[in-house]
Amino acid sequence: MVSGRNLIFAMFILGAGLLGGYELVRQAATPHRATLIEDRGQETGIFHRLYRFRGDLYRIREGEKDPRSIGSMVVSMERSDGSAGATITRQRKGTVEDVHFLELAKNGPPTIVVITRDAEIGGYAECTAFHLEGDSFQAAPLEPLPEELLSRAVGRDEYAQKGAFIYRMIHLEQKDGSDPPIERKLFYDFKNQQWKIAE
């Protein structure tokens, strides 16, 4: 327990209404999993991974000539049938830390959640969701926390995946500096694009 600071566990559910009109896989269902084929970052120190999901290949990488602390991230897909794939490049602040594949649409393409971590003190993380629409990717950076939480956040967020959900732990300073820590659950409402406290 960190003295004078509040540890709050926040669960952000990446679910209903993601990028509009997708039917959620039921939580009880076993989602299709992505298979890591190659991880070049172990040799180069630059994030560069290749995954297979339902036969298609997905490559997520940082820009090859970019500095680690800031630059670009590239998400691309190669179809197993040889037809045209898709590529999108987005700016990033910080390094790419991890990638999660979520099966939110039945028998559809995955939603790829890319976690980036600020290299500065505090290590604040950001989360961007990519979804394939036809022959092109759509990117949806998640909205920030409500101001009352954001103003007290001290960084070092932690992310984990379970099934079709992404979980995130954030650390907040308690308003009066007292203990014990308060626990709350939050989820992300994609339809209204805002964080909400779970009941």
Describe the structure.
This protein has 199 residues and is mainly β. The protein contains two helices and 14 strands; from the N terminus they run ββαββββββββαββββ. It has a five-stranded antiparallel sheet with strand order 2-3-4-5-6. The chain has a four-stranded antiparallel sheet with strand order 7-8-9-10, with no helix packed on it. The radius of gyration is 18 Å and the shape is globular. Residues 1-30 have low confidence and may be disordered.
Order of helices and strands: EEHEEEEEEEEHEEEE
Portion of residues in beta strands equals over 45%
Measure the end-to-end span: 25 Å
Helix content percent band: under 10%
Major pleated sheet: 5 strands, antiparallel
Strand ordering within the main sheet? 2-3-4-5-6
* Count of strand segments: 14
- Mean pLDDT across the residues is 77
- Radius of gyration of CA atoms, rounded to a whole number: 18 Å
* Helix/strand class: mainly beta
* Uncertain parts: 1-30
- Overall, the morphology is globular
Report the total helices. Answer: 2
